[in-house]
Amino acid sequence: MSTPHGFDLQALAAVNASAAFNRSAGFDVVAAGNGESTIRMNWRDELTQYSGHLHAGLIAALLDTACGFAAATLVGAVNASHFSMSCLRPAIGRYFLAKGTTLRAGRRQVFARAELFAADEQDALTLVATGETVLVPTGEPSRKTDGS
């Protein structure tokens, strides 16, 4: 379902489920609304790089998705026009939480940022990366996953 201007948690969960990459990586939308979103991904050895840390490509995907979903709660469907990230420490944890926040939602551009946290065995969260995205509202409706 969509809110009058953006997508709610149920709609974003459906969008997430419709993306083959997100399904393959194991992204789960755990919260979304009011310009914010949280994406969770469990640790999997096959998603690491040569030193055994989470691959930077997955870090970027988590941050970008959290930014896009945060923006989508306010303006609907978006596409990224610019993305940057900073890796602050090696990403190792039982699971990861990417928390996206919309900074400014305009008609032509939306600015969002995200933080990626790694959870240890006691569920303590450590900030491992940050990202910022400039997004463009597309005006497109949510992709339907029921075949209609």
From TrEMBL:
Which controlled-vocabulary keywords does the entry list? Hydrolase
Quick check: keyword Chaperone in the entry? no
**What region holds the Thioesterase domain?**
52-122
The family database entries (InterPro entries) matched by this protein are listed as: ACOT13 (IPR039298), HotDog_dom_sf (IPR029069), PAAI_dom (IPR003736), Thioestr_dom (IPR006683)
User: Does the keyword field hold Hydrolase?
Assistant: yes
* Molecular functions per Gene Ontology: fatty acyl-CoA hydrolase activity
Where are its TM segments located? none
Matches recorded under Gene3D superfamilies: Hotdog Thioesterase (3.10.129.10)
Question: Which family, according to the similarity comment?
Answer: Belongs to the thioesterase PaaI family.
Protein's name in the database: Phenylacetic acid degradation protein
Name the lineage.
Bacteria, Pseudomonadati, Pseudomonadota, Alphaproteobacteria, Hyphomicrobiales
